[in-house]
Design a protein that fits this description.
156 residues, alpha/beta, Rossmann fold, globular, five-stranded parallel β-sheet
């Protein structure tokens, strides 16, 4: 069974690469939003035309990006939502809410100091962790039934 995983959230660290590397060998298909910050911000005006007002500039970009985001979340079996050090990834909170409304399995990656701010998001998740490598462990368990230490013990 191929597990489809959408990786939503902050774009300033390598957490996506950590999860993908940790899931190597598993039957997982990953998707994500555009993580090139400039391209994501400017896609609307680059494709649909310039806007003098920053509100409309951002609005066009958000709408174009939403096509990819909605498709990725709708197609996903699992949605991983990462809140970075500066937890104000409002788009990630929106993605978590959208995924929850669709009944998707959600894994949240966030820091303990953001527990209060993210309590509703955490409550909708099936797992919450601080460590992206734990996401790969969860995916491995879901697909194989093996616990993290079981692979090392089996090799001995």
């Amino acid at each position: 069974m191929t597990l489809k995983v959408y990786l939503s959230g902050e774009i300033h660290t390598d957490w996506r690469e950590q999860i993908i590397a940790g899931a190597e060998g598993l039957d997982v298909a990953f998707s994500a939003p555009v993580t090139d910050h400039a391209a994501s911000d400017d896609c609307g005006v680059a494709i649909l035309g310039a806007e003098a007002d920053k509100y409309w500039h951002d609005h066009k970009g958000a709408m174009v990006n939403a096509i990819r985001t909605r498709k990725g979340i709708e197609d996903a079996d699992v949605v991983v939502v990462r809140f970075g050090e500066k937890y104000r990834q409002w788009n990630a909170a929106f993605d978590a809410g959208y995924a929850s409304a669709l009944g998707k399995s959600i894994i949240v990656v966030s820091m303990p100091e953001h527990q209060h701010a993210l309590k509703e998001v955490h409550a909708s998740a099936l797992a919450v962790t601080e460590d992206p490598s734990k996401v790969a462990d969860i995916l491995r368990y879901v697909l194989t039934g093996r616990l993290p230490g079981a692979m090392a013990e089996a090799a001995e």
